Amino acid sequence: MMREGSLTSEALVEAILSRIDETEGRLKAYVTVTRDTALKEARDADRRAGKGGKLGPLHGIPVSVKDLIETKGIRTTAGSKLLSTYVPSRDATVVKRLKAAGAIIIGKTNTHEFALGGVTPPTCNPWDLSRIPGGSSGGSAAAIAAGSALASLGSDTGGSIRLPSSYCGAVGMKPTYGRVSRAGVFPESWSLDHVGPITKNAEDCALLLSVIAGRDRLDPTTSKKPVPDYLSGAGSGFEGMRVGIPDDYFEPMQKGVRSAVRRAIKDITRLGAVVQHFKFPMVDEIVAAYSIIDYSESAAYHEDSFRERAKDYQPDVRALLEQGFLITAVDYIRAQRLRGVLFSRIKSLFKQLDIIVTPSQPMVAPNHGTTDVVLDGRKMEILSAMTKFLAPFNFTGQPALSINCGFSDGLPVGLQLVGNYFEEGKILSAALAYQKETRWDRARPKI
Amino acid sequence: MTDFVVSVYKALKLPLPEGRLAEIEILARENHQAFSPLKAVSLDKSDEPSTFVLSLLEEGVESE
Q1: Sheet holding A104-109, edge to edge
Q2: ipTM, 2 decimals?
Q3: Is the pTM of this model over 0.90?
Q4: Per the residue annotation, which of A160, A165, A166, A181 is the catalytic one?
């Protein structure tokens, strides 16, 4: 529409700013809204469009960015008192790539402090303000669901893109480890961190991923593997796709969530998927090993700041770091040894499967202040319940996406699609086909 | 356990969490329990720490 001139970037940015004004008092999705610069850049974008010539794939589109990701000249707090006045002098690589594609940064969205949690205070869930949006990229997912952002960037170390996407009814993707640069993003855990898109639908997710993916000299863990055009390269969806359902991923769980996911599996079977049930290897062992790596690497990153300013961390984050300091090197290395074993098993598993489908969460978004949940009669600490189905794929490094698959008690339920390494295209193709069939992406919260 | 917590914090020159040692001890015990499935895994002597990042990078190089 912008190429044809029937829509201007300025009008689009003004519409999003107006929606932010309308919702932000209740939602609290943003830390910073870059109103003036966004409007100026939008007018510049319209002038460039008016002159003709080549426009980027995100020309004039307002995008929000998690406040864990550095933005040149825009305060980046990582949700922490420790960085309350920090203004980066450079953009993270993913932000540079957004801008190069023509995107306009409209603001910075709330994160749980240093991404170390699944709540994202003070952001609320747009479907029910008494509930959390999930985290740690909760501001991004809440803004997408509320319509106060068109697309957003998040990060995911144990589910921090997929968890809030599930709770808010957005589409969120954690790509393969090494597919998207982490340069300029505050680390939670170096070997588990991923950066990816959070969007309203699968098409936008594919577009954003195509823009931000690829080798980056500033992040030596990025792969040289060429980046396909995920949007135009979408395949034939679920037709003939070999889909694995890990039966051990369905408990403990809320009944309404289980029903929604079972219904989604029937939908994808109708779309031509060849479904086979299997047991995912070593789930409990993975969760234990994941936690050891996450806590240890987080503690190592924060060691110096903690020594000087321990009292400035939020109590839950401080407690997590304090645990990390107590993990032994032998346990950490044991966890990394398991990772090597599992990597081989996953590669074997995907000789028989194209994707794995699981619930994203065992529950819908909990109320603010919830510390424990009871699922199938079993009491669980909330963070353990939130990360149980998601963190294994940070541990393995596989790509995974959460997409809305319906509602339970009026709250969104997420379906997780997991692929083989660097096969984001297959996941997005499946997500596009499922979305077209069900149209859950059209549901909007009344906020 | 208290001795262990105090010795680690002193070794790392971290601020001792005065008044919260008991709380940290409880969390550490709970984590010890939560980590137990990993300790039960039988690893082969040949199972080295993960090289999966390098493996992924190799996959990328191979495809070029």
Answers
A1: A30-33, A104-109, A62-66, A151-156, A194-199, A171-174, A400-408, A411-419, A355-359, A242-246, A274-278
A2: 0.89
A3: yes
A4: A160
